[in-house]
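haha ok so turns out i had the wrong file open the whole time. this is the CORRECT one, sorry everyone. sequence first:
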Amino acid sequence: MTKRRQQSPCDWFYTAETVANTHQESRLFRRNRDRGVYRKYTMESHDVEDPEQEYARVLTVAKEALKYIGVFRTPPTPGVYDVWYRYVEGTDKDLHEQLEHAVTVSRSVSKDLLEYCYQQKIADVSGSESLETVSNKLAEEISSLTKLLSSSLEASEGIEESVISTRDSIKELTPTPQMIRTCIEQLLASNDAMRDQLMTTRVQMEQSQAQVNHLKATLLDSQKSLLTDSLTGIGNRRYCQSAIKHAIIQRQVGESNTYLFLLDLDNLKGINNSYGHAVGDDVIRHTSQVLQTLLPHASLARFGGDDFVMIQNYDNHATVTSQAALIREQFAGRAFVSKRIGEQLKQITVSIGCAVLRASDDELTWLDRARNLLTSAKQSGGNQVMIERVI
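then structure:
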């Protein structure tokens, strides 16, 4: 049988028949269909030999995705559905691993986690595509500007040839009044042509330059948005990975050492359960603001959920220890009052794991050691700091 390209199931609009096999699923669909929530999803195409089998596969995945929405009571928005669909489908290994523990072990999946997965694993893809589109437009505009300059240069060379030809005619022959008049007319015509060409080129170059400036600004904004966490305004996971890679490339040999702090809020889940995720988001924003104040020169990022990464150079172990203790005390020693609900929340504490960059480290080993130290800090009861010594 000849293979043909069949679009992914997520390229199809789901109809009532798709989810009508269970009462819960049909209720979810009807509710969101009326609100216009379901949209056209896009994923990579698959090579499909039997469209009927593919339809059956899609239907099964869609049902399971909707079941997860119901079981964990997560909002049936397009982004949340997209995450659950990809989780069930299993093609995105990183996303599957990120959700697997929450689904199978803790059996608690928050809206924040799903939105984070969507932003980091799915929305960033479309953002990258937008960035590529802007980059291509910028390249096209610069190419157009280059062609414009080349065309102007060719026109100038043509006018120069005309002037040289006129000069040679005068030099080789005994000029008559008519010949002189003709030469002058040719020179004036060439001058007019050059002036018109320069005016046209100037206008076109100004337009092209304006377009290039606009595209460059758009490109910078797109690059910034791809590296910024939408909730806190600091770096996101993508930025964090870039900062870790940069620190390894720029590692210093000498008295100064580079440290990676991995910080986790000890009781954010309890806050979410007691006051709601909106208040939990406020706590995360508050955490980022405190860290920005305490570490103004560090590379700072929200790594995911309530995890934060800070990368900074220190001259000695004592300074690192003092800095980490100050961060811990800043949270443990101050109450957080939620403006949203007008209440003082129970004590917010943090745990910190801090690993020093070694000569043998790569991006994974350095972060893994910080994560292991953070795990030890949390297993010791939380509100603790674990710092690795220089070997």
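Residues 1-48 have pLDDT under 50 and may be disordered.
again sry for the mixup
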